[in-house]
Amino acid sequence: MTLISTPRATLSVVIPAYQSVHLARVLESAQKLDPDEIVVVDSSPDEPVILDATVTLKRLPSRTWPAGARNHGAESATSDFLLFVDSDVELTDNAIAFIDARLRSGDSDPICGVYVSSSPKRGAIDEFQDAFLRYRLLRAGRREGRPGGTSFTSTSHMLIRRDLFALVGGFNPELETYEDLEFSARSSHYGSPVTVAQEFQAIHLKKFTFVSLLRDYAVKCFNGFLARRRYPGVFESSRVGLGPTLLSCLVAGCLLPLVAGGLVLIGGFGPTEVALLGTLIAAPTAMWPKVLRGTSWQVKGTSLVLWPAVSWAVATGLAVGFLSWIARRLFRHALRALDWVRAGIRVMSRSGMPVQIVHFVTARCNLRCEHCFYKESLDAPNPGEISLDTLERTTQDIGPVLWYSLAGGEPVLRSDLADVVGVVQKRCRPKVFSFPTNGWFVERTYLTVLRSLQKMDGGNLVVFFSFDGPESVHDEIRGKDSFKRAFEAFARLKPLQSLYPELHLNVITTVMPQNAPVASQFIDQIVRELEPNAISINLFRYHSLEHPPIPPDVLDAYEAATAVYQEHLERGRLAHYGFAGRRFLAAKEVLKSEVILRVARDDAFVTPCTAGTLSYVINEDGAVSACEILDPNQNLGWISGTQRKGQPLRNSDSPSGPVPVSLGRVDTGLPPEESHKGVETFREIVTSRRAQELRTWIDETKCRCTYECAMTTNTLFSWPLSRQLYLRTGRSFLQRKVVTSGAGAQTSMVRADRP
Asked: What CATH number does the domain containing 55 carry?
């Protein structure tokens, strides 16, 4: 008889390290697995000594938390499984055998292990900590009625399929600690909870002192409390799994010094008081049969002194975390109120400072869409891309705005887009923050959005997916398979909305000659199949004020599509918006489309434009303009700074070629003797004489176009339009009330937002 051996899945071992004194011992144990690769990710100031040439060392330029280091190690792995091992964790022979069997079994569930004591025995404090963690991992979950798994997990040594790790999105690099529980919560959301195996044993080489252990508990409880408050959707169904034994002992440990101090103050030690004090002192003995089972009497005795201190460290960490969270919330609410006041002042004063920014962060794109006004410049040899340092200074200068939109090109082609989102969110705190995507890069889009959400601490993120018709029409406009890719990317992001309620998935569609016959039906299809939070319907336009007329059938299709969308809003088919929100949005969308249609059909002047007053465009080369439609020679100036490559931001339109731009070369309004100083900041650009003259030109020439971004701001803040918007919204509420309070309590919607 021929024995057929089961092939073993491939394995990559990833070890995050920082000034590790145990790395050589950890590597020795990992090499017993005969893995396909071992990757050490180190962010120490000094390079570690790697004795084996088969080990790959990845050096990080700055201190990186373990979560981020693990992600770096996993990103280039090609094996079937990933084994994460901390740099102070030695795998035992049991663990080696367990992993080998697991790689041959085909079992794909993520799994973590437990600590055992080393030989010779470790100190009593270290043994206590190992036993405590082992109990929480193996027993607490079962007490909650979840055999084989628990909400409390550890990534000190964890085995997971690489494709599942990518599906979940890796570890949260924003967390110093608690990243294991956060990852486990997200993995459970995707149907793969991290389980615990008793056979998956390792030795924790880290040595604790009394003080360092208490500090470790306090810091982790502090970080854990804030992590749960920062990501409430992620941790909504995740429990810490202490169980009644540990919970009651924690309470007793916290009460012990309080009761003892109180009895000393009152000077009364009767039988009742002595019994109470004795019960609290002996409370840790409740852990002996279960939590500390199998440990020495020295460890059990140490627990009588150690546990009350641990209890107070836990309570202190949670209390400080709670106070910090309250202080942050109060500060954030105060800052948000101040931001609204500052926005109101900008709207009323019209001083030139914006409430809306459209920022082209890259000119690179993988597609060449038929209607894209940008496609001629997509292959420019020097596309720009503002650096993060320059973006930091610029957004700080801009200050709080109502809407900040990143644009491209395809924004996700910037590998640092999540960092861009973080900078803008921190400095400008926009009420609506968005970026578009064609959805071609499914996994890259997912990871970029996930990392952006993990960086955000407040605010919202709107991702616009471009869909321009049913699959055949869309692909004709944008390229083969572009519809399928976008649909997959949208579906890939959808589960994130239950974890991060601040994520909004919207659709943007442009009505043009190629899709005009199916535009209104396609709106129905979008609502039915994608269920987006909102739909932005744009009208095809040229990229200049002088252009041929837009075909009447395109204008009719645009009007019909916006009418269909309004009906969906009124009937509540876009569940994100409540009654008040959808009525206001419906009124705004209809009014905006009416204005755009009047401009497109009749070249009519409908409203003074706020472009160059309340809204601006920042191009990828640093150029600041009032509007996308205006001629490049009407740019207001260039932000002083660098590209991502470290080169100065350049003006590719300069007569002498792509040379560094000095903003003093434009008409800034400075006297000749001061013109050499130039203009460097966004604020100086938009308040310069050139900007004032452009605003006057826009007003005097009755400048008009169909640019949706500017028209949205006009609808909200240009009084001839905003007055209509608020009147229509109020009228829609009143008419709705009349209908619902009439005979039979009619619930059908009235098209109250039509003029």
From this structure: 3.90.550.10
